[in-house]
Design brief:
Helix content: 10-25%
Strand order of the largest sheet: 7-8-9-10-6-2-1-11
Order of helices and strands: EHEEHEEEHEEEEHEH
Shape: globular
Largest sheet: 8 strands, mixed
CATH architecture: 2-Layer Sandwich
Radius of gyration: 17 Å
Strand content: 15-25%
Oligomer: single chain
CATH class: Alpha Beta
Length: about 250
Amino acid sequence: MSSGLMMAPPGCGEASLHLGQLHLWFDPLPRRGYANMAVDELLSAQPEPWLRVYSWAVPAVSYGYFDSACEARRLFPGAEEYIRRWTGGGIVDHRLGQTYTLTLPAGGAPHPSSAQLYLQIHSLLAAALAADGVPCRLLREDAPSGGRSCWASPVCSDIVDAAGHKLAGAGQRRHRGAVLHQGLVQQCEPRGEWPLLLAQALAEQPLVCRDAEPWGGFASALESLLENRYLRPEWEDEHRGCRYHS
């Protein structure tokens, strides 16, 4: 393991997150929007950490739990799907970039705070991207708001280039002690090794999986979660809770 990946980029603080085993899943199936969201939720319920790298079957835009499909369509017209995420964060255009998910299971010592965990994960991701040919740094404070587009409003610990243009951001959700971290790398061209470099920095023993079904019973669990949550009309109800309205 490269010791350089265990350290945060200069001036970014210490990245102390380190796991024993980690399943690194290169999901081979491009999936539709809500299937991708359901897969990530299933991973967050597993008893071990997972790092999933995946793609989209159709042009998609996602919006955080407190945003709205109406605003997503206004900001990014022309996508085939506008999907509500289980995590927070702004509105993200998935027609560009590379998507990944990191899940940390419940059990054991409590996970660090959301801000600390965001810093730790992005410190290691920034090091992995730098080793993969992308000059980058962590943002030390929130940039001026550019609206609901995630990429127009970088926040503290997002990854940016020398000019301050956002290269990587994420949304998080905590549920019953587990953490779901959904991230995107965009507006840069890494050579392609960063997922493995990130996995090696996160864990002593990355276990690589390239199967369409990472465990037995996965397909039926995915179908059930889609039917009972993500494909129900209530999931996209714009008047539910304290959702953002334009």
